[in-house]
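Give me the fold.
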Amino acid sequence: MPLPAALELASVTKRYGSTVAVDRIDLRIPAGTYCCLLGPSGCGKTSTLRMIAGHEAVSEGDIILGATNVTDLPPAKRGTAMMFQSYALFPHLSVLDNVAFALKMRGIDKPARHAKAMDVLRLVAMDGFAARLPAQLSGGQQQRVALARALVTEPQMLLLDEPLSALDPFLRVKMRAELKRLQRELGISFIHVTHGQEEAMALADLVVLMNGGRIEQTGTPRDVFKRPRTEFVARFIGGHNVIDTASGKIAVRADHLRLARPGTVWDGSSVSASVSQIEYQGSYVLVSLKAGGGADLAAQLTEADFDSDPVEVGASVLAGWVPDAAHALD
């Protein structure tokens, strides 16, 4: 494999007519990083990925891979490879020939390209299926073949457009572990577009959370979860309550919110609320609340904490937190 390379986006903008899909974003992804572009539909993450790949033209700004400005280079000259959401396998070609296809386009002779394709199929544990057609494979197996096809050209960076979205939940967890293993083994950067917070948290070294064509926050999964900068980040990442206080808007994690009976003396801050729903989640109990003014809150309680003083739907409670549990939002 070639040496991994850092990626830099400098004031990158993408317009579709009068619509700005990506608005002057600046981003640096160190070499060898697993980066997840995270955000809701329409936030600009896929447009960003496609500009990095060269499948969309940059309206303004520069894309620099390693020491090379690749902004105007065609996809095949960039040193990147892209794995598409649909996998886009050729139905009439065997698994081996699907993986070897890009090498065929480069003029590499059949024995050499088949040998290389088999090496990569072994890497993704699909060498035993080399003679099969895509229709004879499961969804997870097709994904592995698409991954092998992207890796066979030895890219400096692999780009993945929602690669796990078509898989069932069990297989999705299994395949994300495989992706992480491959990225560590290969040492190159993976840039992975997803709208799944759990997926990004499990995979990423660097989370880039986008909203409305801009970057809301970047950081490690732990940093973004523990210290959301804005109300959007706190709500999208999940697990946080956004509360208006006299001193401004704060975020309090659901597992840091505690419940007490009205009239309890609380060593911290609290709001009055009523219990709207109770869900047993196995390792914890999720209590949904309606606070004054109609704000929705949630408390994630351990089973022991809930059982020590259980509440019922409709009950009035104090939802409280200690000062250290509150995180101020921009």
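The first strand starts at residue 7 and ends at 16.
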